[in-house]
Amino acid sequence: MSEPWVAWLGDDFTGSAAVMEVLQFAGLPAVLFTDLPSPVLLQRFAGVRGIGIATTARTLDPVGMAATLPDLFRFLQGLNPALLHYKICSTFDSAPGMGSIGKAIEVGLTVRPADAVPLLTAAPAMRRYQAFGHLFAGAPGGVFRLDRHPVMAHHPVTPMAEADLLAHLSAQTSLPGALIDLEALAADPQARLRQVVAGGARILSIDCMDAASEAAAGRLLWLNRQRMGLVAGSQGIEYALIRHWQDIGLIPAPQPAGSAGAVAQIAAVSGSVSPVTASQLDWAGRNGFDLLPFDARAACGSDADLATEVGRVARGALATAARGASPLVHSAAGTAGPQVAAFRDALAASGMTPTSANQRIGEGLGRVLDAVLRGSGIRRAVISGGDTSGHAMRQLGLSALVAKAPTIPGAALCEGHGDGTHDGLEIALKGGQMGSEDYFGWIRDGGGPRRERAAA
Question: CA-CA 20 to 30 A from 411: which of 95, 138, 139, 236?
């Protein structure tokens, strides 16, 4: 096939990059665009097997999604991919009023009609598991059902009170759903698929726990691509497909990806409030990084207030870089820190919506990073926080990303492409709850597989 095997539209930047790295490190050339690419940029990546577009749809309400997603779906559908994938977070971050997965599926079906939409969220390589419809996710303290997960059960924007994904989804769409569970995957998933589709199901939640169920899920997706060419899920979609493609000899087992090599300094910004990120900030502060707080209250004020804070922090970060250390600018250090409480008070007093304020924080951090990179000559960077990554990336003028070196699944070191100053920048996008404690140091060292690092 000369067309892409998979085209994906991601609901945030870090998750979108995760799909690209899964394909790239499996030996299938892939590229992630940060917006609709120009014909010239698209031609630069002619012949790749995977093409994606990153969005910030996870921060949009259903009206915003209906206005934003159709043109992006149509562009990707115009590439004639074997499968069109709406990429969601592996912890199913969504709510009826924000980042609605149900609404996105409805929009996708208007562009690529299908008998039903397979939904595969689990990804065992990332410690995400689904059993009999319920999603489980790993954390530093173990594996938890999603509604009892130490991060997701208390997420500040989309807290998960329900681990049964079809039950959670029922508040977002009227499309009927059905489950293809572990028993069906082990016996005859095709028979189960025919049964539930004949019964009227339009969304098919698929279990996945291990290599065998992952391979069965991948086979089911690929065999039914003609009539179920729109799929939804995490990068578990690509993990399952790759396992099936390897099983049938369509692609060989890949050579292990290596490191990009160590550098003396990197620049990083973080808008995450996750406890995982807090521990990573603590490690970084003890290992050659200079932690510089960004006062998020400025995002609740005027444009001048935000510009003043951006300038203040950028000057401090440039001074850090001049001393030979790595600047790491952060708007929070965990959910319980004084930065978060102060921001919430300022937000309440401002009357601004949380979505608008969070966007302004991300854009402010992106402007800080842009200034530091321009003023220091540093050529490797990290943006931490799924929503932050989308807003901050747009400040750098980068239009495409290609995975370069792995770290934990879903947070690779990439090479950025664009027409401006930052073309060729090495950059990693990391979700808030992802990564080893020494993640920032790992990126400074160039990434690359390390056996002692366990995925979070």
Answer: 95
Best CA proximity match to 428, nearest among 367, 372, 385: 385
List pLDDT tens digits, range 250-278: 999 888 889 999 999 999 999 998 888 99
Residue 50 phi/psi, 5-degree rounding, is: -135, 130
Residue extents of the structural domains in the chain: 6-247, 267-444
Q: 290 pairs with which residues across the strands?
A: 327
Side chain identity at residue 38, one-letter code: S
Q: What is the mean pLDDT of the chain?
A: 93
Between the alpha carbon of residue 11 and those of residues 70, 90, 105, 138, 282, the distances in Å are 13, 11, 12, 21, 29
The pTM of the full predicted model, rounded to 2 decimals, is: 0.87
CATH class of 267-444: alpha beta
**Token pair belonging to 365:** 């951090």
As to burial, measured by CB atoms within 10 angstroms (0-12 exposed, 13-18 middle, 19+ buried), residue 348 is: exposed
Beta strands in 146-250 (DSSP E): 177-180, 203-206, 230-233
Hey, what CATH topology would domain 6-247 get?
Rossmann fold (3.40.50)
- Residue 417 is inside which H or E element, if any? strand 413-417
Q: Closest Cα partner for 408 from 127, 23, 87, 122?
A: 127
